[in-house]
Amino acid sequence: MRLNLFFGVDRMQALRPVGKLRELTNGPAKLCAALGIDRQLDGADLSSVGSPVFVAGNPRRAREVSASGPIVETTRIGLTKAADLKLRFYLAGNEFVSRR
């Protein structure tokens, strides 16, 4: 197995060059572009570590929520279908949120 040491913000900026760091991931499409997530990953099992993309626990979660919280639950932006459902979550003090 080959270890890929090109990751984190450097990798995201290579995939999505921007002038200001805040603009790197402040929106769902921007986040996907910066992480290299595209339609080829449709149907990926987000709960399997064998998947090309998966959701993992963050050992710094409590610290991040404490520093940038609380967690805000709201409706999504720019939709007409299911626009009243609260399916958008973010940390109130996080600068990478697209719009508050």
What string gives the helices and strands in order?
A: HHHEE
Radius of gyration: 15 Å
Mass-distribution shape: globular
The number of domains is: 2
Q: Which sequence of strands runs across the widest sheet?
A: 1-2
Question: Can you put this structure into words, describing what you see?
Answer:
By secondary structure, the chain is of the alpha+beta class. The protein folds into two domains: 1-50, no CATH class; 57-100, no CATH class. 23% of the residues lie in helices and 8% in strands. It is built from three helices and two strands; from the N terminus they run H-H-H-E-E. The longest helix is centred in the N-terminal third of the chain and has 8 residues, at 28-35. The chain is globular, with a radius of gyration of 15 Å. The protein starts with 8 loop residues before the first helix and ends in a 9-residue tail after the last strand.
Concise overview:
The protein is an alpha+beta fold and 100 residues long.
